[in-house]
Amino acid sequence: VLVIGAGVVGVVIFQALVEAGHRVTLVERHRVGLGTTAFSGGVVRCLHVDETLTERAVLGWRYYRDLCRAHRNAMTFHRTGVLYFPTAARVPWIRRQVARLAAMIPIEWLEPRVARTRFGQLLADCDEGVVWEPESGYVEPGEVVRGLILKGQAKGGRLLEGVEVRGVRWAGGRIVGVSTNTAPLDADLVIFATGPQTPGLLDAMAIDHDLDNRMVQVELRAPDGDTGDHPSYSDEAYGLNGRPDPASAGMYLGVRTDVAGASAVLPGPIDPQQSAIAIAAGSRRFSWVGASTTLGGVRSPECFAPDPHGRVCRLAGSAQLLLATGFNGAGFRMAPWASGEVVRLIETSEFATSGRAMA
Ligand SMILES: Cc1cc2nc3c(=O)[nH]c(=O)nc-3n(C[C@H](O)[C@H](O)[C@H](O)COP(=O)(O)OP(=O)(O)OC[C@H]3O[C@@H](n4cnc5c(N)ncnc54)[C@H](O)[C@@H]3O)c2cc1C
Prior knowledge:
By secondary structure, this protein is of the alpha+beta class.
């Protein structure tokens, strides 16, 4: 099996396939983890806008928690806790979800009065109440991808860096591998985990898709004063998300980006217009944002699909081509679900029965 792209999605898939007994090569045109993954906040939390995403996110939360427990010298799960602010209209649904999830994960609903008592020094507005996930938080993307690569290599997985896949090779009506900037590589199955390069790659191969790229920007703000143990957060009402950055004593502040940029494939400096939008929205939720100052930030392309469920599927044109991308800004926490889905797709395909893809 050939996995193209060593971002978090490709690396988690690589490790899962090696673990499942497949013979796997992971191919990366640059170095491991330097695509969109290098810009990720690594926030891992559970409650999402619908039950499907929540189920997948719970899987991701357990995965990173257990991974960090098992490799505590190399990786840390930073339990900042996560606040999830719903819109007023969704409060009844959200409260039902919290009641359902409370049997499975640490989660509780905080009435406005309780939220103000616990987090009042941080909040400008908490009129609707808020969901509290005390055991959620974030991981450092670099730690996780490096750790997983080592795990996969230790079990026989192969990594090739500096190798760019240029196209798929066919013989006798079947895919037999890929062409690259160096030697061709043989494979029975090819998985595109190519992040924001995916729309361009699929266009070049004349393969149908519904993917697009958007720039995601997250400010790093220095609060004027002590914000204590500020939790990570996600905000349906004002489109915000972020987490603390202990190294700088700053807080990340991201706001939903609605601007599509099909040609956006490279990261760059932060855009002042987008900063102004983030600060305006952030000031409505948090009392510290208005007087905060800039510590810079990050801006990177992310692969989007028209809905938030990601694209983990067979590609049109060949059962030997799989896709894993389009996570709309949540690819880090969705990667563990994606890897399980890829293993399932492979094991229910013709390759499993012929044994051709197995080691
Ligand atoms: C600023 C920001 C903050 C975010 N914060 C969070 C967060 O807190 N939590 C969360 O869950 N998600 C977050 N996300 C989303 C998450 O980071 C991404 O969904 C995820 O990192 C995407 O990983 P990937 O492996 O699909 O893509 P990438 O990391 O871009 O990896 C794709 C890799 O494929 C390689 N590649 C591409 N084409 C080829 C080729 N032809 N041959 C060989 N290699 C190739 C690239 O070089 C790259 O290394 C954030 C995103 C951004 C931009």
